[in-house]
Amino acid sequence: MTRPYDLPSLTSLVCFEAAARNLSFKKTAAELNVTPAAVSHQIKALESELGTALFRRQHRGVDLTESGAYLFVALQRGFEGISDAIAAVRTAESTEDVTIQATTAVSAFWLTPQITAFWQDQPDIVVSQIVSDGASNAQTDLSIHYAALPGDGAGHILFHDDIVAVGSPRFAATHGAGTLDALRRVPLIHVVSEDNDWTTWAEWFAHFGHDAPSGRRIAVNNHMIALQMARDGAGAVLGWTGLIGPLLDNGDLTLLMPERMPSPHVFHLRTHPRASAQARIFRDWLVAAPRAP
């Protein structure tokens, strides 16, 4: 019988999504309650069926390839839709203690480590994430936004950081621009999204009194994919220091220029009317959590 959807094994897709989110087969195995060997088997089977590598295996762990990052975002969106539907039919008594929405990049590079730390203090409060780079109809307790702080008192600043130009060490060696004017002419990765007001390259250069860039333009609609492409050496990308610290620390990305533009917006946390008492405990903890310098 012909399958109505051209999909690989759902088990392998679920396994891949968890591995892409954790960037660790060991952590994925613990999450799915299977062995690391079983995770590796599922990933290899999926890569074989798709005919492309989804991960780069390294001695420190794994990184997504460009194809892997693209599939990861697509799966996140698909699982979001399924999650929204389940949330709509699930009774209120069986829902999670806390649900929080964030973009893929914020979830991967900032929120997930914060949740892990929170569980050290409050192991009995379950925090679930809805990862979305677009508008979501899901009912959440909390959500993280990069935008002007709302004036209704429902927003709390998480961090207000700087925006810097970054690229892979290989890109820096090949395209050592040296000056802002020279940087305008190298390949630049642009994040174009109607749902997130990411600061653009044109705005960044204008802040320093320079014209808009004139080099090769690579446009994507997802900041995490943009960062992955930069790690692969495809071009330079704008990075928010509050998010990309781990990528700078481990050498995946490096500063291309010393110039820093203060972010025109803040990353802030919004509390929604349905927020439970547990959600407000998590909110207060998150707002008070120490930030990396």
Quantity of strands, as a count: 13
Task: Give the topology string: H per helix, E per strand.
Answer: HHHEEHEHEEEEHHEHEHEHEEEH
Multimerization state: single chain
Taken from the alpha-carbon principal axes, the silhouette is globular
Number of helices: 11
What percent of residues are in strands? Answer: 15-25%
Q: Give me the Rg, rounded.
A: 20 Å
Given helix and strand content, the structural type is alpha/beta
Report what the structure shows.
This protein is an alpha/beta fold and 293 residues long. The protein contains eleven helices and 13 strands. It has a five-stranded mixed β-sheet with strand order 4-3-5-13-6, sandwiched between helices. Strands 7, 10, 11 and 12 form a four-stranded antiparallel β-sheet that branches. The protein starts with 9 loop residues before the first helix and ends in a 5-residue tail after the last helix.
Strand and helix map with partners:
Blueprint (H helix, E strand, L loop, with lengths): L9 H13 L2 H8 L3 H15 L4 E4 L2 E4 L1 H24 L8 E5 L1 H18 L5 E5 L10 E6 L7 E5 L2 E6 L1 H6 L5 H4 L4 E4 L9 H7 L9 E4 L2 H9 L5 E4 H9 L4 E2 L5 E2 L3 E6 L5 H12 L5
Parallel strand pairs: 3-4, 3-5, 8-9
Antiparallel strand pairs: 1-2, 5-13, 6-13, 7-10, 7-11, 7-12
Helix pairs in contact: 1-2, 1-3, 1-4, 2-3, 4-9, 5-10
Brief account:
By secondary structure, the chain is an alpha/beta fold.
